[in-house]
Design a protein that fits this description.
single chain; mainly alpha; globular; 206 residues
């Protein structure tokens, strides 16, 4: 692969990574309603989800039946709706709290994996864009470099987001507006779930 091919791939990839979506919402939710540790665990889970997608795309499995994609989207919609409900039910933290309610980093990691695998942005990128940006003659070394770049950049961005959201100033502000944050987060999750649900249902019925 040429330098231009790498730059084109990473440019499109990074634009998608930093744009708002389910992954970002989950990392913020885990960081604010939980802790920095949980936020970073979710970020690592998201990066693991990307590793799964990269493997699937490299093996050419991504060209599978459209109905399978539709089922994945419907599962993603259910996950997003359940997160919205859980966010509204969560007890908002205040500055007087000594810590977050007990939550497992492993559960946060698993949530990150599940969210990314069913993330419509990841689905679209790896099923519709990724294959067009990887030349058919790309070597195994090229593919390995691409995989490392995608996974590392995803982990770095969401890890930084988790760290930023849990810094003292930001954490204080978010805690003081915890109820508004929870409602906004839940609303975004419901909207995203609606979009994914519509897309998946349409695909199944056509």
């Amino acid at each position: 692969m040429s330098v231009g091919s790498y730059l084109a791939l990473m440019g499109i990839w990074l634009a998608g990574v930093v744009s708002p979506g389910p992954d970002a919402v989950v990392v913020l939710r885990q960081s604010v309603l939980g802790s920095r540790r949980l936020g970073i665990a979710a970020a690592l889970g998201i990066a693991t989800g990307i590793a799964v997608w990269v493997t699937v795309a490299m093996l050419g499995v991504a060209a599978g039946p459209p109905k399978v994609l539709a089922v994945v989207q419907l599962l993603g919609a259910v996950l997003l709706l359940s997160l919205a409900v859980a966010t509204l039910r969560a007890r908002p933290l205040t500055d007087t709290d000594t810590g977050a309610p007990p939550r497992s980093p492993s559960a946060s990691f698993a949530l990150g994996v599940a969210t990314n695998i069913t993330n419509p942005k990841a689905v679209v990128f790896f099923l519709a864009v990724f294959a067009t940006l990887i030349p058919p003659h790309a070597s195994g070394g090229d593919k390995l470099i691409v995989a490392v770049l995608l996974i590392a950049s995803e982990a770095a961005w969401f890890g930084a987001l988790a760290w930023f959201a849990s810094t003292r100033v930001v954490d204080h502000w978010l805690r003081s507006h915890a109820r508004a944050f929870a409602r906004t987060t839940a609303a975004v999750l419901v909207i995203l779930a609606g979009i994914v649900l519509w897309s998946g249902t349409t695909e199944l019925l056509t």
